[in-house]
Amino acid sequence: MDRSLEQATMRKVAWRLIPFICLLYFVAFIDRVNIGFAALTMNKDLGFTSAVFGFGAGVFFFGYFLCEVPSNIILDKVGARLWIARVMITWGMLSGAFAFIKGEWSFYILRFLLGAAEAGFFPGIILYLSYWFPARYRAGVVSLFMAAAPISVLLGSPLSSALLEMEGILGLHGWQWMFIVEAVPAVLLGVMVLFYMTDRPEKAKWLADDQRAWLVAEMNEERARKQTTAKHSLLGGMTDLRVLALALIYFGTSAGLYTLGIWAPQIIKSFGLSTFAVGFLNAVPPTIAVIAMILWARHSDATGERTWHVVIACLVAAAGLMLAGGAASVAAVIAALSLVNVGISAAKPPLWAMPTMFLSGSAAAVGIATINSIGNLGGFVGPWAIGWIKDQTGSFTGGLIFVAGLLVLSAILTLVVARSGRRAEPAGAVTR
């Protein structure tokens, strides 16, 4: 193998694909969690209780759950270019429609539809990356893609808080302007996907002939090596016990992620800060998380170890949530939320490197979607539980402890899966 050819090819593929899909995820994540900033003024304007807001924020994941697997199957059949464009255009339009909600039922319905529209984006990109990057690169590449989530909080927090200051312009509330302005990039990028994204290496005219030939041969060889051990059928991808176990592990990390995205602004504001100050302070934890996630994923790729990279990260996030629940000052709560951000962000790349080690073809499309759809129900349970418990107790503490418990269970289950899989799986699969 020509090492210089491999390096040149991977560098060119990475520069072509990663910045663009990071931009897509950046916009997607802002549209998914900007509801947390809207709540700073929207809840009062519309008379929403914490329980109503928590349920509405989380009902997004029911639409997501129901449409995730069909969406990824369609993407595998028609190609990422067409399907990702469809996803982005429809979710952008629905996100903008949030400017016109009038009460809790229109809020619930639009959140459900937004989840249905966006279903397939994240697992579709994970599947798409498996077409272009050999397994030895995958955790590092996924970490770069997923860095867009904390970066969207880093940059989106000040932006969202600034848009909330547009109160009264043209007769609209600030939160209405926020939804309208932040929806536009999704629609524009959806159109751009049609002209920029390439479905498979075989179609990559932007690669030199020798680079394209090497990459196609490398990915074909990797698929051939998995022929005797990997699941390939649709049913195999949905029913593999390892898929279901990874979905439950992901459930805890999703509960933590969306607890941050949806409730962190209100947790910080509870210390009596202005909306503008909340926007800047909420950007601190993800700044730290981006660096930690990339370094952690590179270490996972370099060592070939996945299990403990997931376990340790989940426990760090759980500890941060516990500390946030008892924080008595702004500095303490920002430090605690930084731990949560680091742990949640660091857990995901090594976790997402696991499924394509034992799934291939249609089974990979369905398996990744199954993990993401079931796991993302944690995005409903976490925010809803925090809202409900806050209404009952008047404090965020109980809900934060509950989500911390889910992350501890994720860590324990990761160890159980690794232990039970050592005999059944080849080296380098789930147990590494």
Map the helices and strands.
Elements (H helix, E strand, L loop, with lengths): L2 H31 L1 H12 L3 H29 L1 H18 L6 H15 L2 H12 L5 H9 L1 H17 L9 H23 L12 H17 L8 H6 L1 H29 L5 H7 L2 H20 L3 H19 L4 H23 L8 H15 L2 H16 L3 H25 L11
Helix pairs in contact: 1-4, 1-7, 1-8, 1-9, 1-10, 2-9, 2-12, 3-4, 3-5, 3-6, 3-17, 3-18, 4-5, 4-6, 4-9, 6-17, 7-14, 7-16, 8-13, 8-14, 12-13, 12-16, 12-17, 12-18, 12-19, 14-16, 15-16, 15-19, 18-19
Overall helicity? over 70%
Taking the sheet with the most strands, its summary is: none
The shape, in one word, is globular
Oligomer: single chain
* Topology order in helix (H) and strand (E) letters: HHHHHHHHHHHHHHHHHHH
Distance, first to last CA:
25 Å
Unreliable runs = 229-233, 423-432
Which percent range describes the beta-strand content? Answer: under 5%
Overall pLDDT confidence: 85
Kindly name the structural category.
Answer: mainly alpha
Please tally the helical runs, counting DSSP H or I stretches of 4 or more residues.
19
**How many strand units?**
0
Cα radius of gyration in angstroms: 21 Å
Q: Can you tell me about this structure?
A:
The protein is an all-alpha fold. The chain has helices at residues 3-33, 35-46, 50-78, 80-97, 104-118, 121-132, 138-146, 148-164, 174-196, 209-225, 234-239, 241-269, 275-281, 284-303, 307-325, 330-352, 361-375, 378-393, 397-421. Helix 3 (50-78) runs antiparallel to helix 4 (80-97). The longest helix has 31 residues, at 3-33. The relative contact order is 0.15.
